[in-house]
Write a structure and sequence with these properties.
Length: 142
């Protein structure tokens, strides 16, 4: 696969389609099984509160992976992402109810680089708080 977006057609300031990702306790259990990360802060409310958290929190890598989906969906090829990094700023708190939590992600092209690549800055929030900081990807376009 290759990116479906042409480098020549993208300008600095291009906004990618924003997405909202629901997260509930079942999501966390499935992610724990797939990743092998069974840390009890991600599934045991009593334990999470004992260590000072407000409730169970989503895995940081799950949050990071959810956010980059905005970029991979836009580019049309997950392999187009050649670099990606974030800082974890706040946890995604996942209550034990029918709603869970939402991770809202927006992204914008902030630089055109060499070799048909662009830098995309992402903003990820949950419950009105920024959960990822310095979230940036370099994407190779067609």
């Amino acid at each position: 696969m290759t990116a479906k977006i042409a480098y020549a057609e993208v300008e600095v300031g291009t906004e990618l389609p924003a997405r909202t990702f629901p997260v509930n306790r079942a999501t966390l259990v499935r992610y724990a099984g797939a990743s092998g990360d069974f840390n009890p802060i991600h599934w045991n409310e009593r334990f999470a509160k004992e260590v000072g958290l407000p409730d169970v929190i989503a895995h940081g890598m799950f949050t990071m992976a959810s956010a980059i989906r905005v970029v991979t969906d836009w580019a049309g090829d997950p392999g187009a992402v050649v670099e990606y990094g974030v800082r974890f700023t706040k946890p995604v708190v996942v209550p034990d109810d029918d709603k869970g939590a939402l991770v809202e992600v927006s992204a914008k092209v902030t630089a055109k680089l060499e070799d048909n690549t662009v830098r995309v800055d992402l903003t990820a929030t949950s419950a009105g708080q920024k959960v990822l900081g310095m979230s940036r990807a370099v994407v190779r376009l067609a």
